[in-house]
Amino acid sequence: MNRALQQLSEMYSKTSRLIIGLMSGTSLDGLDIALCRITGSGADTQAGLEHYETFGYSDDFKSDIRSIFSKQQADLQKVTLLNAVTANLHAEMILNALKKWNVKPSEVDCIASHGQTIYHSPKRLHGLSGYPDATLQIGDGDHIAVKTGIITISDFRQKHIAAGGEGAPLALYGDHILFSSKEENRVMLNIGGISNFTFLPMGGAAGTVCSDTGPGNTLTDALSKKYFNAPFDKDGGYAGKGRVIEPLLETMLLHPFFKESLPKTTGPELFNLQFIEDCRNAAGIDEVNPEDLVTTASLLTARSIAMGIKRALTVDSYSIYVSGGGCHNSFLMEKLRELFPNNKVKLTGELGFNPDAKEAILFALLANETICGSSLQTGGGPAVTMGKISLPT
Asked: What are the strands of the beta sheet with 194-200, ordered from one edge?
């Protein structure tokens, strides 16, 4: 038997597995690497975070990715080349992380690689007759497996689409495993480039929902780059100095996406600088203060999150646990607490999970389920195992 296939069989038989979870989001700030010890599978899963770090991307790499990211027309040669370049870069970062943590590659059971999304195209967005929901992530798993010598599971979103989903959000599966509670109704809110949430009814009752709500940090990141030469609005500093442009905010909230039924997905293909420009024109707004634009975009994030959650929930009492880069934006967190005055808004740290590492941990969980052959019944999405398995040899 091929040695790598034997390793797969042995991995299945283990009571616990050491799995690296990778996440690279649309904000392009870097690669999140989470080394997780995962015991069991399905509802009996327990996960511990042994090491975590974000490895930043160079300006040249960011520029390369942005040249093809969320663009209807892109250089096909560049897409092809960056599929390998991204994988090799991620592999180097993994090896550097393991060396730093004094962990041998041979000690790691597998890598769970999300890859780098370059285009997300659900039917609701492209509107093309005869074409399905689709999404594309680059960062080929074979390159990672060969360069690291570690079995790699990647390209998780395609199975979700094949089984009838939209390829996102996949947080549902990990949230269901780790955060379901017998004591409280929970909303697991992740604010990355796009905001999404999972509603977990207390005691496993019916009504689980997982959906995108709209922009997370994608609009404020884009505005910060354009007007302040900054990668993002650190701690909500720009938003805190501006004033909301009410006609612009109301025009933004009129976009049909916010009225569509749940669950739904979206991406920077919709929520980008052109979206802001179109809404400005529709509202008849010419000259604006850049800080006012950041304030208004931040409030759009908060308001659309609140609209989505309140539409989905049929209960009054629940706690909201926030993760992702947006949880460090004090302006945004303050607005969320104002919009949910009767509910607790906390960070996932209170549940023992680093809010920055949560998404990388969730992909490690998905890989664990694939190894164990589990098809999770969550009540909120297709019951499938996800990911393609790449062997190092």
From this structure: 209-215, 194-200, 186-191, 319-323, 344-347
For the CA atoms of 201, 204, 210, 216, what is the dihedral angle to 10 degrees?
Answer: 50
At 210, which helix (H) or strand (E)? strand 209-215
Q: Residue 383 has what pLDDT?
A: 73
Same domain for 30 and 132, yes or no, is yes
Kindly state the tokens that stand for 119: 């285009």
Helix (H) or strand (E) holding 84: helix 76-100
Domain that residue 254 falls in: 179-351
- Using CA atoms of 315, 312, 32, 73 in order, give the dihedral in degrees to the nearest 10: -170
State residue 203 phi and psi, 5-degree precision: 70, 15
- Report how many domains make up the chain: 2
Judged by DSSP in three states, 289 sits in: coil
What CATH number is attached to the domain comprising 74? 3.30.420.40
Q: Give the C-alpha distances (Å, rounded to integers) separating 324 from 188, 211, 268, 291.
A: 11, 15, 16, 23
**Diameter of the chain measured on Cα atoms:** 68
pTM of structure: 0.94
Answer yes or no: are the C-beta atoms of 64 and 78 closer than 8 Å.
yes
Q: Based on the domain organization, do 12 and 123 belong to the same domain?
A: yes
Q: Are 391 and 150 in contact (CB under 8 A)?
A: no
Length of the chain in terms of residues written: 393
Q: Which residues contact 63 (CB under 8 A, 6 or more apart)?
A: none
For the chain, list residues with pLDDT below 50: none
Please indicate, yes or no, whether residues 93 and 39 belong to a single structural domain of this protein: yes
The model's pLDDT over 287-307, given as tens digits with 9 standing for 90+, comes to 899 999 999 999 999 999 999
Same-domain pairing of 316 and 185: yes
